[in-house]
Design a protein that fits this description.
Elements: H1 2-21, H2 26-70, E1 88-100, E2 122-125, E3 128-135, E4 140-151, E5 154-166, E6 176-182, H3 205-210, E7 218-225, E8 231-239, E9 256-267, E10 271-289, E11 295-312, E12 322-340, E13 348-366, E14 369-379, E15 400-411, E16 414-426, E17 429-443
Antiparallel strand pairs: 1-2, 1-3, 1-17, 3-4, 4-5, 5-6, 6-7, 7-8, 8-9, 9-10, 10-11, 11-12, 12-13, 13-14, 14-15, 15-16, 16-17
C-alpha cells in the first residue's frame, strides 16, 4: 500500500513540478521541491508510527485472548481473575448496622439454620472474607475463601471454598469443566455468588429457609457448555450431604447429588437473559436441624429450583444506566419423619411439600447510584400431627418480606447501601428493619458470573 501511495504521489508531484516550471523561476522551483521533500518525510514518519502502534495493539490482543482461554471454561461467562500475582489475594470488608422492631424472627413452618436467621441487631461486622485464587499450572485453577464471622459472641473462621478446577489445557473436550473440593455449587442464581456480591444486604426468604443462605458442601461437579449459538450449559455433581438442607449424619460421604441445565443469550445489542432449572437431592439422617427449635428431619429430600435473569442497558452502556430483573422459585419435597427433641415427641411421619419464591428489580439511574425492590414469599407444608406449636406449625400463615434498597458505588472496590425491610414471618409478627451496610474490597478480586 505504501509503494502505491508513493508512486502516485511521485507522479503527481512530477507533473505538477513540470507544469509549474514553465511559469516559475528556478529559485521558486527549488523552494517548492524542498517543501515537497519535507512533506514526504513527515508522512513517512507518521505512517511508521501508526504501524508500530498497530503492532503493539495486535500483541496486546493476543495476550488478552490467551489469558481468557487460561481461565476456567475458557472465560465463557465464568470468573476471570487478575494474573498480576499468582495467586491473586483479596480481602472483603463487610460491616452493617441493623435495627429491628420485633424481638422474634422465627419463620413459621420452617426449621431454619443459624446462617438463615436475620442476624444481630446494632453495629457489627457482617461476613468478611479473605480470597486466594490463581492458575496452578496450564491445566488447573484453584481458589480458597476463608470467612470471619461472629457467632454466639465469638469470632470464628470458616472455610467457605477450597476447590480446584480444570482449565482448557487439561485435555478435556472443549467446553467441559470439572470442579472438586468445597464451593458454592451451581444451584439457582444467588448460590454461586458470595453474599457481598448480592444486590441487597440480606438474602431472600427462600435462600434462608431452604439453603441456610447457601449450599457449599464438599463434592465434585461437572459442567459442559454446548457448542451452540445459544448459550447452553448442562451439568451435575455429587456431594457428601453434610451441609444444610441435608445434614447426612451417617458420614458415608455420598449423601447428595445435583443436576442442572441453563440457557441464555442476547436480545439485540443491549439486552441479555438467562434461564435455569436445578435439582438437589439427598438423604438426611438427622443432621439437619433448626437453630432455635430442636426439630430434626430424617428421610429423603428433593429440592427443585428455577431462575430467570434479564438485564437491559437503555443507553447501550451498562456502566451508565442498567435495569436488572431477577427471580427464583423453589419447591422442596420431603418423605421421612420429623422429631421435636425439646418437646420429647417421637418421630412423626411426614410426606409433603413446601415452596417459595422471590422477585426483584434493580435500576442503576446514575453511574454510581442504584435503587432496588424485592418481594419474597414462602408457602409452608402442613405441620405433622403431633408437632403443633413447633417451628413446623405455620398456623395457616405464609411468611413474606418486602425490601427496598438504595446504594452508592464509589468504585468497583467500595459500596455503601441503605435498606428497609418489612417482614411478617409469623402470624401477627410484623418486623420493620433498617440496615446500613458497607462493602469494601482490598487487593485483586475477579469479576462475578452473569
Amino acid at each position: 500500500m505504501r509503494k502505491s501511495y508513493f508512486a502516485v504521489s511521485t507522479l503527481f508531484f512530477a507533473v505538477f513540478s513540470g507544469t509549474y516550471a514553465m511559469a516559475a523561476s528556478n529559485p521558486d522551483l527549488e523552494a517548492l521541491q524542498t517543501e515537497i521533500r519535507q512533506m514526504k518525510q513527515a508522512y513517512e514518519k507518521r505512517i511508521s508510527e501508526l504501524e508500530n502502534k498497530l503492532a503493539k495493539l495486535t500483541v496486546a490482543k493476543t495476550e488478552t485472548t490467551e489469558m481468557a482461554q487460561a481461565a476456567p471454561d475458557g472465560g465463557a461467562g465464568k470468573k476471570i481473575h487478575g494474573n498480576e500475582f499468582n495467586p491473586s489475594i483479596g480481602v472483603i470488608l463487610n460491616g452493617k448496622y441493623s435495627g429491628f422492631s420485633s424481638d422474634s424472627s422465627n419463620i413459621a413452618g420452617f426449621g431454619v439454620g443459624e446462617e438463615g436467621e436475620r442476624g444481630r441487631e446494632g453495629l457489627g461486622l457482617d461476613e468478611s472474607a479473605l480470597n486466594f485464587a490463581g492458575s496452578i499450572d496450564d491445566k488447573f485453577y484453584g481458589g480458597l475463601t476463608v470467612a470471619v464471622v461472629r457467632e454466639a459472641g465469638e469470632d470464628k473462621v470458616e472455610l467457605e471454598e477450597a476447590y480446584v478446577q480444570t482449565l482448557s489445557g487439561a485435555g478435556l473436550p472443549q467446553g467441559l469443566s470439572v470442579k472438586a473440593g468445597r464451593a458454592f455449587w451451581t444451584f439457582g442464581y444467588l448460590n454461586e455468588h458470595h453474599t457481598h456480591a448480592d444486590d441487597f444486604a440480606d438474602r431472600p426468604l427462600p435462600y434462608r429457609a431452604f439453603l441456610n443462605k447457601a449450599f457449599n458442601d464438599d463434592g465434585l461437579e461437572v459442567s459442559y457448555v454446548l457448542p451452540t449459538d445459544l448459550y447452553t450449559e448442562v451439568g451435575g455433581g455429587v456431594f457428601r450431604g453434610d451441609d444444610f438442607p441435608l445434614g447426612n449424619a451417617t458420614g458415608d460421604g455420598g449423601g447428595a447429588w445435583s443436576a442442572f441445565a441453563r440457557l441464555g443469550g442476547d436480545i439485540g445489542e443491549n439486552k441479555s437473559w438467562r434461564l435455569g432449572a436445578y435439582l438437589l437431592s439427598g438423604e438426611s439422617d438427622g443432621g439437619r436441624s433448626s437453630n432455635e427449635d430442636a426439630v430434626t428431619f430424617i428421610g429423603d429430600s428433593d429440592l427443585y429450583a428455577a431462575d430467570l435473569r434479564f438485564t437491559w442497558a437503555p443507553t447501550g452502556n451498562a456502566r451508565e444506566r442498567e435495569v436488572i430483573v431477577q427471580g427464583e422459585y423453589f419447591r422442596r419435597n420431603e418423605d421421612g419423619s420429623y422429631e421435636d427433641t425439646d418437646a420429647g415427641t417421637g418421630a412423626v411421619a411426614f410426606d409433603d411439600s413446601a415452596s417459595g419464591w422471590y422477585a426483584q428489580a434493580v435500576y442503576k439511574f446514575l453511574p454510581q447510584w442504584r435503587i432496588g425492590v424485592r418481594y419474597s414469599l414462602l408457602e409452608a407444608a402442613g405441620a405433622p400431627a403431633g408437632l403443633a406449636g413447633s417451628a413446623l406449625d405455620a398456623e395457616g400463615h405464609d411468611p413474606e418480606a418486602t425490601a427496598v434498597m438504595l446504594d452508592w458505588t464509589n468504585s468497583e472496590f467500595s459500596r455503601v447501601r441503605l435498606q428497609y425491610n418489612h417482614e411478617e414471618l409469623s402470624r401477627g409478627q410484623n418486623d420493620d428493619q433498617i440496615m446500613l451496610q458497607y462493602i469494601m474490597s482490598l487487593g485483586a478480586h475477579g469479576a462475578h458470573t452473569y
